Structures are given as C-alpha cells and as structure tokens.
Amino acid sequence: MALAILVTGGTGRLGSRVVTRLVEAGATVRVLTHSRTGPDGVELFAGDLATGVGIDDALAGVGTVVHCAGSAKGDEVMTRTLVAAAQNAGVGHVLYISVVGAERVPVVSGLDRMAFGYFAAKRAAELLLENSRLPYSILRTTQFQESMLAVARQMAKSPVIPTPTGSRFQPVAVDEVAARLAELALGEPAGLVAEMGGPTAYLTGELVRGYLTATHRRRLFVPVHMPGRAAGAIRAGANLTPNQAVGVQTWEELLASEAGV
Q1: By Cβ atoms counted within 10 A, which residue in 23, 171, 179, 260 is the most buried?
Q2: What is the pLDDT of residues 195-242, one digit of tens each?
C-alpha cells in the first residue's frame, strides 16, 4: 500500500487545490488543519505547526509532505517544527513552496522587514530544509494572481492610491502552481527545482489600473519611492523570473474570469 501524502495548509488557497489534484491522481491524502472541516476524500488531522501539537500523529505512515502552510511571521517556526517531526517519522520527501527572489531580496532593516519580510521568512524555511537530513524539493514561484487581486481590491477602496515606483510583479495563477506541486509530490525529491513565473511582468500601477478598468472605476494614483535595500532589489527585478515565464493564464484573463472583481 502506498504511503500517504500529508498537505499542510491543505484548506488554504493553494493547499486545497493541491489536495484536489492529488486526490484526482489517486493518492491517499491527509490534511493538517486547525479546522474540523476540509476537502472531500481526505483524512483530516487536527494539528498546529506553531506548537507541534498533533504533528506526530499526522505524520505516522506518511511518505511525502507538501508544506503549503506559512505566513510572513511563521514560516521559519512552522518549518522548524515540521522538519524535526518529519525526521523522527522517517518521511521520505518534503516539498516546500517558496518565492522567487527568496535569496535575492535582502531584508536587513526593520523597514525592509515590515514591507518584505515574506522573502526572508521563505529563505529561512528553505535553509532549514537544505540543512536537514530530509530528502526535499523546493519550488519557488512568483506572487499568485489571486493574491495580487486581493491587494488590488484593498488598494481600490481608497480614492487615492499610493503606488511604489518601479516595482514590478509577475503574477502566476494559483491553480497552475497547484498542478506543478502535485506533479512534484508524486515524484522523487529533486532539491531546488526550476522556478515558475507568470507570463507577463507588470508595474504595480498597471496591475491596479487593470483591476479598476475591469470594475469600471477611477482613482488618483500618487507615485511613492520605497526606501531600503529590499525595495531597491524589487525595483531591480529580484522578484522576477523572466526566463521561467511558464505560466499560461494572464492577469487580464483572471480579471475577465472574475465576474465580481
């Protein structure tokens, strides 16, 4: 009997889609969750990566972990807990979702950390895996289109929108990332795999203007120069992967598909 695959963050935006793909592929899937509810066709295990409660039970009989749980503040803590437990359980493959630019965006000051701590958290989690005894795979992707849409919605609530000058993003569809993660989870550990970016890079203002056009609204834009080394790295394209623009769905197609954008 094949060992189970455990998905952390399996009820979230990305994790739930990974779970669906794995179930469709015939895998035995478990989801680590705080909730009592989750996707159909899977075993739910109550657990908390921040404290370690329930993790050992969830990992018993697991061959692969797809680690989708995380946050700007908690990636390192949660990954440290998971790595220790996975080592004890003899897990054969840990697959981690990271971000393009994790090692290229320097987070050296409090200001950097406030705006771009996400990159540092992802890199710290990567290092925990790289320095462990666990076989692993790491997939770095650009920002999700769906996450950028949430940001655009929030920014559009104000009549005046501060827009970072020179900052570009290369959003990728979350479902395409989920498909790649499922493929990797069903394969052998591969270390740091090829990055994955969306088909087009946009200035921040272009992304928001596209959203405003789709929702038939207008706003005043005020350019803002973001200080700090991390912001400078973003302006230089450290968060982009032009040679791996393998995503298919465009930002415009996402907006067109969202009737209530």
Answers
A1: 171
A2: 999 999 999 999 999 999 999 999 999 999 999 999 999 999 999 999
| Cβ 160 vs Cβ 223: under 8 Å | no
Domain boundaries, given as residue ranges, for the chain:
4-257
What does the buried/exposed string (b/e) look like for 106-122 if buried means 16 or more CB atoms within 10 Å of the residue's CB? Answer: bbeeeebbebbbbbbbb
pTM: 0.94
Cα 33 from Cα 12, distance rounded (Å) = 10
Q: At what angle do helices 110-130 and 75-89 cross, to 10 degrees?
A: 10
The rounded mean pLDDT for the chain is: 93
CA distances from 44 to 5, 16, 47, 135, 255 (A): 12, 12, 9, 25, 33
